[in-house]
Amino acid sequence: MAQDLLVGVDVGTGSARAGVFTPSGKLLARHEKPISMRRSDANHAEHDSAQIWTAVCAAVRQAVSDAGANPQDIVGIAFDATCSLVVRGRDGEPVAVSRNGENRWDTIVWLDHRALEEADECTRTGHEVLHYVGGVMSPEMEVPKLMWLKRHLPQSWERAAQIFDLADFLSWQATGSLARSQSTLTCKWTYLAHAEQKWRRDFLAEVGLDDLLDKAALPAVASPVGSDLGPLTEKAAHDLGLSTNCRVGAGLIDAHAGALGVLGAFTADIATIDRHLALIAGTSSCVMALSAEDRPTSGVWGPYFGAVLPGVWLNEGGQSATGALLDHVIRLHGAGGDPTPETHAAIVRRVMELRQAEGTEFAKRLHVLPDFHGNRSPLADPFALGVISGLTLDSDFDSLCRLYWRTCVAIALGVRHILETLNTRGYSIDTLHITGGHTKNPLLMELYADATLCTVVEPSAPDATLLGMAMVAANAAGLYSSLDQACIAMQQGGTARAPNPAARAQYDRDYRIFLEMLRHRQTIDNIA
Prior knowledge:
By secondary structure, the protein is α+β, with helices and mostly antiparallel strands. Helices cover 37% and strands 20% of the residues. The chain has 17 helices and 20 strands. It has helices spanning 49-66, 116-124, 142-152, 154-159, 166-175, 182-188, 201-206, 212-215, 234-240, 254-263, 323-332, 341-358, 397-423, 442-450, 464-476, 483-490, 504-527, and strands spanning 5-11, 15-21, 27-34, 38-41, 44-47, 74-81, 85-89, 107-108, 160-165, 228-231, 247-253, 276-281, 285-291, 301-305, 313-319, 367-369, 387-389, 431-435, 455-459, 494-497. It has a seven-stranded mixed sheet, with helices on both faces. It has a six-stranded mixed sheet with strand order 3-2-1-6-11-10. A five-stranded antiparallel sheet has the order 4-5-8-7-9. A hairpin with a 3-residue loop joins β1 and β2. The model has no long low-confidence stretch (mean pLDDT 95).
Protein backbone atom coordinates (compact mmCIF):
# COMPACT_ATOMS: atom_id res chain seq x y z
CA MET A 1 0.00 0.00 0.00
CA ALA A 2 1.15 3.52 -0.71
CA GLN A 3 2.18 5.50 2.35
CA ASP A 4 3.78 8.86 2.96
CA LEU A 5 7.50 8.46 3.67
CA LEU A 6 10.29 10.86 4.61
CA VAL A 7 14.01 11.13 3.93
CA GLY A 8 16.54 12.66 6.31
CA VAL A 9 20.06 13.45 5.08
CA ASP A 10 23.08 14.01 7.34
CA VAL A 11 26.42 15.19 5.93
CA GLY A 12 29.26 14.82 8.41
CA THR A 13 33.00 15.31 8.12
CA GLY A 14 33.69 12.04 6.31
CA SER A 15 30.42 10.79 4.87
CA ALA A 16 26.90 11.53 3.67
CA ARG A 17 24.08 9.44 5.13
CA ALA A 18 20.44 9.13 4.21
CA GLY A 19 17.57 7.43 6.04
CA VAL A 20 14.00 6.61 5.04
CA PHE A 21 11.38 7.02 7.79
CA THR A 22 7.68 6.54 8.38
CA PRO A 23 5.65 9.46 9.77
CA SER A 24 5.79 7.75 13.18
CA GLY A 25 9.60 7.97 13.20
CA LYS A 26 10.44 4.35 12.34
CA LEU A 27 13.66 3.98 10.35
CA LEU A 28 13.11 1.69 7.35
CA ALA A 29 16.58 1.86 5.82
CA ARG A 30 19.70 4.00 5.73
CA HIS A 31 22.80 4.17 3.58
CA GLU A 32 26.15 5.95 3.80
CA LYS A 33 28.64 7.17 1.20
CA PRO A 34 32.13 8.55 1.92
CA ILE A 35 33.16 12.10 1.03
CA SER A 36 36.65 13.45 0.46
CA MET A 37 38.59 15.98 2.49
CA ARG A 38 41.82 17.62 1.38
CA ARG A 39 44.31 18.72 4.05
CA SER A 40 47.36 20.75 3.07
CA ASP A 41 48.40 21.35 6.70
CA ALA A 42 47.03 21.06 10.23
CA ASN A 43 44.88 24.20 9.92
CA HIS A 44 43.64 23.93 6.32
CA ALA A 45 40.91 21.51 5.21
CA GLU A 46 38.67 21.58 2.13
CA HIS A 47 35.75 19.65 0.63
CA ASP A 48 34.52 19.34 -2.95
CA SER A 49 30.83 20.36 -2.75
CA ALA A 50 29.94 18.72 -6.08
CA GLN A 51 31.31 15.43 -4.77
CA ILE A 52 29.27 15.88 -1.58
CA TRP A 53 26.07 16.33 -3.63
CA THR A 54 26.92 13.22 -5.65
CA ALA A 55 27.43 11.24 -2.43
CA VAL A 56 24.13 12.56 -1.01
CA CYS A 57 22.26 11.49 -4.14
CA ALA A 58 23.82 8.03 -4.10
CA ALA A 59 23.01 7.58 -0.40
CA VAL A 60 19.38 8.66 -0.90
CA ARG A 61 18.88 6.40 -3.92
CA GLN A 62 20.29 3.37 -2.11
CA ALA A 63 18.37 4.02 1.11
CA VAL A 64 15.09 4.31 -0.81
CA SER A 65 15.90 1.09 -2.68
CA ASP A 66 16.85 -0.75 0.53
CA ALA A 67 13.59 0.39 2.13
CA GLY A 68 11.63 -1.06 -0.78
CA ALA A 69 9.95 2.32 -1.11
CA ASN A 70 8.28 3.82 -4.15
CA PRO A 71 10.05 7.13 -4.88
CA GLN A 72 6.64 8.70 -5.45
CA ASP A 73 5.81 8.02 -1.78
CA ILE A 74 8.66 10.24 -0.49
CA VAL A 75 6.78 13.42 0.40
CA GLY A 76 9.50 15.28 2.31
CA ILE A 77 13.28 15.54 2.53
CA ALA A 78 15.62 17.70 4.62
CA PHE A 79 19.37 18.14 4.83
CA ASP A 80 21.71 18.77 7.73
CA ALA A 81 25.45 19.26 7.39
CA THR A 82 28.56 20.41 9.17
CA CYS A 83 29.02 24.18 9.31
CA SER A 84 31.38 24.11 6.33
CA LEU A 85 31.52 27.10 3.97
CA VAL A 86 30.68 26.62 0.25
CA VAL A 87 31.68 29.28 -2.32
CA ARG A 88 30.03 29.41 -5.73
CA GLY A 89 30.14 31.89 -8.61
CA ARG A 90 27.44 33.84 -10.44
CA ASP A 91 26.40 30.84 -12.53
CA GLY A 92 26.70 28.39 -9.66
CA GLU A 93 30.19 27.25 -10.58
CA PRO A 94 32.64 26.21 -7.81
CA VAL A 95 35.17 28.82 -6.67
CA ALA A 96 38.50 27.81 -5.15
CA VAL A 97 39.06 28.25 -1.41
CA SER A 98 42.46 26.53 -1.48
CA ARG A 99 45.77 28.25 -2.02
CA ASN A 100 46.53 26.06 -5.02
CA GLY A 101 43.60 27.61 -6.87
CA GLU A 102 41.94 24.32 -7.85
CA ASN A 103 38.24 25.15 -8.18
CA ARG A 104 36.87 21.76 -7.19
CA TRP A 105 37.99 22.47 -3.60
CA ASP A 106 35.32 25.12 -3.04
CA THR A 107 34.37 24.37 0.57
CA ILE A 108 36.23 25.29 3.78
CA VAL A 109 35.62 22.44 6.23
CA TRP A 110 34.13 23.31 9.62
CA LEU A 111 37.25 22.15 11.50
CA ASP A 112 39.57 24.35 9.42
CA HIS A 113 41.44 26.80 11.66
CA ARG A 114 43.12 28.98 9.01
CA ALA A 115 41.26 32.05 10.32
CA LEU A 116 42.65 32.14 13.86
CA GLU A 117 43.93 35.70 13.48
CA GLU A 118 40.68 36.89 11.92
CA ALA A 119 38.65 35.29 14.72
CA ASP A 120 40.79 37.09 17.29
CA GLU A 121 40.28 40.35 15.41
CA CYS A 122 36.50 39.86 15.58
CA THR A 123 36.70 39.27 19.33
CA ARG A 124 38.69 42.47 19.84
CA THR A 125 35.87 44.54 18.35
CA GLY A 126 33.79 43.89 21.48
CA HIS A 127 30.68 44.23 19.32
CA GLU A 128 27.19 43.29 20.51
CA VAL A 129 27.11 40.25 18.20
CA LEU A 130 29.75 38.63 20.42
CA HIS A 131 27.22 38.44 23.26
CA TYR A 132 25.47 35.75 21.20
CA VAL A 133 28.55 33.62 20.45
CA GLY A 134 29.80 33.23 24.01
CA GLY A 135 31.86 36.42 23.97
CA VAL A 136 34.65 35.02 21.77
CA MET A 137 34.60 34.49 18.01
CA SER A 138 35.64 30.98 16.99
CA PRO A 139 37.70 30.27 13.85
CA GLU A 140 35.10 27.57 13.13
CA MET A 141 32.45 30.25 12.47
CA GLU A 142 31.91 31.67 9.01
CA VAL A 143 32.73 35.36 9.49
CA PRO A 144 36.46 34.87 10.19
CA LYS A 145 36.71 32.36 7.34
CA LEU A 146 35.09 34.89 5.01
CA MET A 147 37.54 37.55 6.19
CA TRP A 148 40.43 35.19 5.46
CA LEU A 149 39.07 34.39 2.01
CA LYS A 150 38.70 38.06 1.09
CA ARG A 151 42.22 38.91 2.31
CA HIS A 152 44.20 35.92 1.11
CA LEU A 153 42.32 34.83 -2.04
CA PRO A 154 41.06 38.13 -3.53
CA GLN A 155 40.53 36.55 -6.95
CA SER A 156 38.18 33.97 -5.45
CA TRP A 157 36.39 36.70 -3.52
CA GLU A 158 35.93 38.67 -6.73
CA ARG A 159 34.39 35.62 -8.47
CA ALA A 160 32.14 34.65 -5.56
CA ALA A 161 28.45 35.46 -5.93
CA GLN A 162 26.75 32.86 -3.72
CA ILE A 163 28.21 31.66 -0.42
CA PHE A 164 26.48 29.04 1.70
CA ASP A 165 26.66 27.05 4.86
CA LEU A 166 26.79 23.46 3.62
CA ALA A 167 23.24 22.59 4.75
CA ASP A 168 21.89 25.61 2.85
CA PHE A 169 23.95 24.65 -0.21
CA LEU A 170 22.26 21.24 -0.25
CA SER A 171 18.80 22.87 0.03
CA TRP A 172 19.77 25.18 -2.85
CA GLN A 173 20.87 22.21 -4.95
CA ALA A 174 17.54 20.56 -4.20
CA THR A 175 15.20 23.52 -4.80
CA GLY A 176 17.10 26.37 -6.45
CA SER A 177 16.04 28.54 -3.49
CA LEU A 178 18.53 30.96 -1.98
CA ALA A 179 16.67 30.84 1.34
CA ARG A 180 18.91 30.22 4.36
CA SER A 181 18.10 28.37 7.53
CA GLN A 182 17.75 30.20 10.83
CA SER A 183 19.97 27.44 12.28
CA THR A 184 22.95 28.21 10.06
CA LEU A 185 22.74 32.02 9.90
CA THR A 186 22.09 32.49 13.61
CA CYS A 187 24.84 30.15 14.78
CA LYS A 188 27.62 30.84 12.28
CA TRP A 189 27.01 34.15 10.50
CA THR A 190 26.26 36.58 13.41
CA TYR A 191 22.61 36.86 12.35
CA LEU A 192 20.53 37.94 15.35
CA ALA A 193 17.23 36.12 14.84
CA HIS A 194 15.68 37.57 18.00
CA ALA A 195 16.39 41.19 17.15
CA GLU A 196 14.58 43.71 14.99
CA GLN A 197 17.87 44.56 13.26
CA LYS A 198 18.97 41.04 12.36
CA TRP A 199 22.13 41.83 10.39
CA ARG A 200 24.57 44.20 12.13
CA ARG A 201 26.05 45.97 9.13
CA ASP A 202 28.29 48.08 11.37
CA PHE A 203 30.00 44.93 12.64
CA LEU A 204 30.44 43.52 9.13
CA ALA A 205 31.93 46.85 8.01
CA GLU A 206 34.28 46.93 11.00
CA VAL A 207 35.75 43.52 10.03
CA GLY A 208 36.00 44.40 6.34
CA LEU A 209 32.91 42.55 5.12
CA ASP A 210 30.65 45.48 4.26
CA ASP A 211 29.87 43.76 0.92
CA LEU A 212 29.02 40.37 2.44
CA LEU A 213 25.22 40.42 2.17
CA ASP A 214 25.38 41.05 -1.58
CA LYS A 215 28.48 38.93 -2.19
CA ALA A 216 26.98 35.87 -0.49
CA ALA A 217 23.40 36.50 -1.76
CA LEU A 218 22.15 36.44 1.82
CA PRO A 219 18.46 37.06 2.60
CA ALA A 220 17.22 39.83 4.88
CA VAL A 221 15.32 37.25 6.94
CA ALA A 222 16.24 33.60 7.57
CA SER A 223 13.79 30.71 7.10
CA PRO A 224 12.66 29.00 10.32
CA VAL A 225 13.90 25.46 10.80
CA GLY A 226 11.51 23.02 9.14
CA SER A 227 9.79 25.58 6.94
CA ASP A 228 8.82 24.47 3.44
CA LEU A 229 11.35 25.70 0.89
CA GLY A 230 9.38 24.27 -2.01
CA PRO A 231 9.47 21.10 -4.12
CA LEU A 232 12.48 19.37 -5.60
CA THR A 233 13.46 20.72 -9.01
CA GLU A 234 13.24 18.28 -11.90
CA LYS A 235 17.02 17.95 -12.01
CA ALA A 236 17.32 17.39 -8.25
CA ALA A 237 14.48 14.85 -8.32
CA HIS A 238 16.31 12.99 -11.08
CA ASP A 239 19.64 13.13 -9.22
CA LEU A 240 18.07 11.91 -5.97
CA GLY A 241 15.81 9.31 -7.58
CA LEU A 242 12.71 11.01 -6.14
CA SER A 243 9.81 13.02 -7.57
CA THR A 244 8.94 16.71 -7.79
CA ASN A 245 6.09 16.04 -5.34
CA CYS A 246 8.70 15.89 -2.57
CA ARG A 247 8.92 19.03 -0.41
CA VAL A 248 12.21 20.29 1.05
CA GLY A 249 12.49 21.52 4.64
CA ALA A 250 14.85 24.24 5.84
CA GLY A 251 17.65 22.27 7.46
CA LEU A 252 20.10 22.53 10.32
CA ILE A 253 23.73 22.25 11.28
CA ASP A 254 24.40 18.54 11.84
CA ALA A 255 24.80 18.65 15.61
CA HIS A 256 21.57 20.65 15.89
CA ALA A 257 19.76 17.91 14.01
CA GLY A 258 20.93 15.45 16.64
CA ALA A 259 19.67 17.78 19.37
CA LEU A 260 16.30 17.99 17.64
CA GLY A 261 16.12 14.20 17.43
CA VAL A 262 16.75 13.68 21.15
CA LEU A 263 15.37 16.85 22.77
CA GLY A 264 12.57 17.95 20.45
CA ALA A 265 9.92 15.92 22.26
CA PHE A 266 10.65 17.72 25.55
CA THR A 267 9.22 20.97 24.19
CA ALA A 268 5.88 19.64 25.41
CA ASP A 269 7.14 20.71 28.86
CA ILE A 270 9.28 23.76 28.08
CA ALA A 271 9.59 24.60 31.79
CA THR A 272 11.77 21.53 32.45
CA ILE A 273 13.63 21.24 29.15
CA ASP A 274 16.64 22.94 30.77
CA ARG A 275 17.33 19.75 32.78
CA HIS A 276 18.25 17.94 29.57
CA LEU A 277 21.48 18.21 27.59
CA ALA A 278 22.04 16.73 24.13
CA LEU A 279 25.56 15.39 23.56
CA ILE A 280 26.24 14.73 19.89
CA ALA A 281 29.56 12.95 19.98
CA GLY A 282 31.67 11.69 17.11
CA THR A 283 34.85 13.15 15.56
CA SER A 284 34.16 16.17 17.72
CA SER A 285 31.47 16.69 20.36
CA CYS A 286 28.69 19.25 20.67
CA VAL A 287 26.55 19.82 23.73
CA MET A 288 23.16 21.44 23.22
CA ALA A 289 21.01 22.97 25.95
CA LEU A 290 17.56 24.45 25.27
CA SER A 291 15.63 26.93 27.39
CA ALA A 292 12.60 29.20 27.31
CA GLU A 293 14.74 32.32 27.84
CA ASP A 294 18.14 33.56 26.69
CA ARG A 295 21.05 32.64 28.97
CA PRO A 296 24.33 34.22 27.84
CA THR A 297 27.22 32.05 29.01
CA SER A 298 30.87 32.98 28.66
CA GLY A 299 32.74 30.48 26.52
CA VAL A 300 29.57 28.78 25.30
CA TRP A 301 28.10 29.66 21.90
CA GLY A 302 24.76 31.40 21.87
CA PRO A 303 22.23 32.03 23.14
CA TYR A 304 20.73 31.42 19.69
CA PHE A 305 17.04 32.07 19.10
CA GLY A 306 15.13 29.51 17.03
CA ALA A 307 18.25 27.65 15.94
CA VAL A 308 16.76 24.22 16.71
CA LEU A 309 13.06 24.87 17.38
CA PRO A 310 11.01 28.01 16.77
CA GLY A 311 10.67 30.15 19.88
CA VAL A 312 13.28 28.25 21.91
CA TRP A 313 16.78 29.45 22.86
CA LEU A 314 19.89 27.32 22.38
CA ASN A 315 23.27 27.35 24.11
CA GLU A 316 25.92 25.28 22.34
CA GLY A 317 29.19 24.11 23.82
CA GLY A 318 31.64 21.71 22.33
CA GLN A 319 34.96 19.92 22.14
CA SER A 320 36.77 20.31 18.84
CA ALA A 321 38.42 16.88 18.93
CA THR A 322 37.11 13.85 20.84
CA GLY A 323 36.77 10.81 18.60
CA ALA A 324 39.53 12.41 16.53
CA LEU A 325 41.64 12.72 19.68
CA LEU A 326 41.33 9.02 20.48
CA ASP A 327 42.37 8.28 16.89
CA HIS A 328 45.33 10.62 17.35
CA VAL A 329 46.41 8.92 20.60
CA ILE A 330 46.48 5.58 18.79
CA ARG A 331 48.56 6.99 15.93
CA LEU A 332 50.85 8.83 18.34
CA HIS A 333 51.76 5.78 20.42
CA GLY A 334 54.41 3.32 19.29
CA ALA A 335 52.08 0.37 19.93
CA GLY A 336 49.17 2.03 18.10
CA GLY A 337 49.12 2.20 14.32
CA ASP A 338 46.04 2.77 12.20
CA PRO A 339 43.00 3.67 14.39
CA THR A 340 40.59 1.19 12.84
CA PRO A 341 37.37 0.11 14.60
CA GLU A 342 39.11 -3.18 15.35
CA THR A 343 42.01 -1.37 17.03
CA HIS A 344 39.64 0.67 19.18
CA ALA A 345 37.74 -2.49 20.14
CA ALA A 346 40.93 -4.32 21.11
CA ILE A 347 42.05 -1.41 23.30
CA VAL A 348 38.64 -1.17 24.98
CA ARG A 349 38.68 -4.90 25.78
CA ARG A 350 42.16 -4.68 27.29
CA VAL A 351 41.25 -1.58 29.31
CA MET A 352 38.32 -3.49 30.77
CA GLU A 353 40.66 -6.35 31.77
CA LEU A 354 43.24 -4.02 33.31
CA ARG A 355 40.60 -2.12 35.28
CA GLN A 356 39.21 -5.39 36.56
CA ALA A 357 42.67 -6.47 37.71
CA GLU A 358 43.95 -3.14 39.10
CA GLY A 359 40.75 -1.39 40.20
CA THR A 360 40.99 2.34 40.92
CA GLU A 361 44.80 2.14 40.88
CA PHE A 362 44.71 1.68 37.11
CA ALA A 363 46.58 4.61 35.50
CA LYS A 364 45.63 6.86 38.45
CA ARG A 365 48.73 9.07 38.07
CA LEU A 366 48.25 9.59 34.34
CA HIS A 367 46.27 12.73 33.47
CA VAL A 368 45.28 14.42 30.21
CA LEU A 369 43.97 17.81 29.13
CA PRO A 370 42.14 17.00 25.87
CA ASP A 371 42.57 20.38 24.14
CA PHE A 372 44.77 19.12 21.29
CA HIS A 373 42.75 21.23 18.82
CA GLY A 374 42.01 24.14 21.14
CA ASN A 375 39.28 24.49 23.74
CA ARG A 376 35.92 25.37 22.22
CA SER A 377 34.05 25.41 25.56
CA PRO A 378 33.97 26.67 28.20
CA LEU A 379 37.33 28.45 27.81
CA ALA A 380 36.75 29.53 24.19
CA ASP A 381 40.49 29.37 23.54
CA PRO A 382 41.38 28.08 20.06
CA PHE A 383 45.07 28.38 20.97
CA ALA A 384 44.82 26.01 23.97
CA LEU A 385 47.08 22.96 23.83
CA GLY A 386 46.73 19.38 24.98
CA VAL A 387 48.69 18.17 28.00
CA ILE A 388 49.71 14.69 29.16
CA SER A 389 51.09 14.31 32.69
CA GLY A 390 52.46 11.08 34.13
CA LEU A 391 54.32 9.38 31.28
CA THR A 392 57.00 6.73 31.80
CA LEU A 393 59.32 4.83 29.47
CA ASP A 394 56.65 2.16 28.92
CA SER A 395 55.83 1.76 25.25
CA ASP A 396 53.97 -1.55 25.08
CA PHE A 397 50.31 -2.13 24.23
CA ASP A 398 49.22 -1.86 27.85
CA SER A 399 50.76 1.61 28.11
CA LEU A 400 48.72 2.62 25.07
CA CYS A 401 45.62 1.26 26.82
CA ARG A 402 46.40 3.38 29.90
CA LEU A 403 46.77 6.52 27.82
CA TYR A 404 43.60 5.74 25.85
CA TRP A 405 41.62 5.22 29.07
CA ARG A 406 42.81 8.44 30.66
CA THR A 407 42.09 10.33 27.44
CA CYS A 408 38.51 8.99 27.63
CA VAL A 409 38.35 10.22 31.23
CA ALA A 410 39.58 13.66 30.14
CA ILE A 411 36.95 13.89 27.39
CA ALA A 412 34.20 13.12 29.93
CA LEU A 413 35.61 15.63 32.42
CA GLY A 414 35.59 18.22 29.66
CA VAL A 415 31.85 17.66 29.28
CA ARG A 416 31.46 18.05 33.04
CA HIS A 417 33.33 21.36 32.84
CA ILE A 418 30.88 22.60 30.20
CA LEU A 419 27.70 21.49 31.95
CA GLU A 420 28.84 22.93 35.30
CA THR A 421 29.40 26.24 33.50
CA LEU A 422 25.89 26.08 32.01
CA ASN A 423 24.42 25.29 35.43
CA THR A 424 25.82 28.57 36.77
CA ARG A 425 23.63 30.38 34.23
CA GLY A 426 20.26 28.96 35.23
CA TYR A 427 20.30 25.47 33.81
CA SER A 428 19.72 22.44 36.07
CA ILE A 429 21.22 19.74 33.86
CA ASP A 430 20.98 16.25 35.28
CA THR A 431 20.31 14.17 32.15
CA LEU A 432 22.53 13.67 29.09
CA HIS A 433 20.97 12.40 25.85
CA ILE A 434 23.83 10.98 23.80
CA THR A 435 23.88 10.24 20.10
CA GLY A 436 26.68 9.69 17.59
CA GLY A 437 29.68 7.41 17.32
CA HIS A 438 30.54 7.53 21.03
CA THR A 439 27.52 5.36 21.82
CA LYS A 440 29.56 2.47 20.37
CA ASN A 441 32.38 3.00 22.90
CA PRO A 442 31.44 1.43 26.26
CA LEU A 443 34.22 3.27 28.10
CA LEU A 444 32.90 6.68 27.07
CA MET A 445 29.28 5.76 27.77
CA GLU A 446 30.21 4.62 31.28
CA LEU A 447 32.25 7.76 31.89
CA TYR A 448 29.61 10.15 30.63
CA ALA A 449 27.39 8.96 33.48
CA ASP A 450 29.94 8.41 36.23
CA ALA A 451 32.28 11.38 35.61
CA THR A 452 29.51 13.96 35.03
CA LEU A 453 27.16 12.63 37.75
CA CYS A 454 24.30 12.70 35.24
CA THR A 455 21.82 10.11 34.07
CA VAL A 456 22.74 9.11 30.52
CA VAL A 457 20.03 8.30 27.99
CA GLU A 458 20.91 6.46 24.80
CA PRO A 459 18.14 6.99 22.24
CA SER A 460 16.27 3.94 21.01
CA ALA A 461 16.27 5.44 17.52
CA PRO A 462 19.03 3.79 15.48
CA ASP A 463 20.10 7.25 14.26
CA ALA A 464 18.81 10.25 16.20
CA THR A 465 20.41 12.76 13.81
CA LEU A 466 18.64 11.31 10.76
CA LEU A 467 15.45 11.12 12.82
CA GLY A 468 15.77 14.85 13.54
CA MET A 469 15.94 15.54 9.82
CA ALA A 470 12.94 13.28 9.16
CA MET A 471 11.05 15.44 11.69
CA VAL A 472 12.02 18.52 9.68
CA ALA A 473 10.95 16.82 6.44
CA ALA A 474 7.60 15.82 7.98
CA ASN A 475 6.92 19.43 8.94
CA ALA A 476 7.81 20.70 5.47
CA ALA A 477 5.52 18.10 3.91
CA GLY A 478 2.63 19.27 6.10
CA LEU A 479 2.19 15.95 7.91
CA TYR A 480 2.08 17.78 11.26
CA SER A 481 0.82 21.18 12.31
CA SER A 482 4.21 22.35 13.58
CA LEU A 483 7.77 21.16 14.05
CA ASP A 484 7.35 20.57 17.77
CA GLN A 485 4.29 18.41 17.07
CA ALA A 486 6.34 16.39 14.56
CA CYS A 487 9.02 15.90 17.23
CA ILE A 488 6.50 14.70 19.81
CA ALA A 489 4.82 12.28 17.38
CA MET A 490 8.06 10.83 15.96
CA GLN A 491 10.27 10.54 19.07
CA GLN A 492 11.43 7.00 19.91
CA GLY A 493 12.39 7.13 23.60
CA GLY A 494 15.62 5.67 24.99
CA THR A 495 17.45 3.60 27.59
CA ALA A 496 18.68 5.33 30.78
CA ARG A 497 21.83 4.64 32.81
CA ALA A 498 22.29 6.24 36.23
CA PRO A 499 25.76 7.25 37.51
CA ASN A 500 27.51 4.75 39.77
CA PRO A 501 27.67 6.27 43.30
CA ALA A 502 30.75 4.17 44.10
CA ALA A 503 32.72 5.92 41.35
CA ARG A 504 31.99 9.45 42.52
CA ALA A 505 35.02 9.92 44.79
CA GLN A 506 37.41 8.74 42.07
CA TYR A 507 36.08 11.13 39.41
CA ASP A 508 35.67 14.03 41.81
CA ARG A 509 39.40 13.67 42.52
CA ASP A 510 40.16 13.46 38.80
CA TYR A 511 38.07 16.57 38.18
CA ARG A 512 39.96 18.54 40.83
CA ILE A 513 43.22 17.53 39.11
CA PHE A 514 41.71 18.45 35.73
CA LEU A 515 40.90 21.97 36.93
CA GLU A 516 44.33 22.31 38.56
CA MET A 517 46.02 21.31 35.29
CA LEU A 518 44.05 24.01 33.48
CA ARG A 519 45.41 26.57 35.96
CA HIS A 520 48.96 25.21 35.61
CA ARG A 521 48.76 25.39 31.81
CA GLN A 522 47.67 29.01 32.01
CA THR A 523 50.54 29.79 34.39
CA ILE A 524 53.06 28.20 32.01
CA ASP A 525 51.58 30.09 29.05
CA ASN A 526 51.86 33.34 30.98
CA ILE A 527 55.54 32.66 31.76
CA ALA A 528 56.24 31.68 28.16
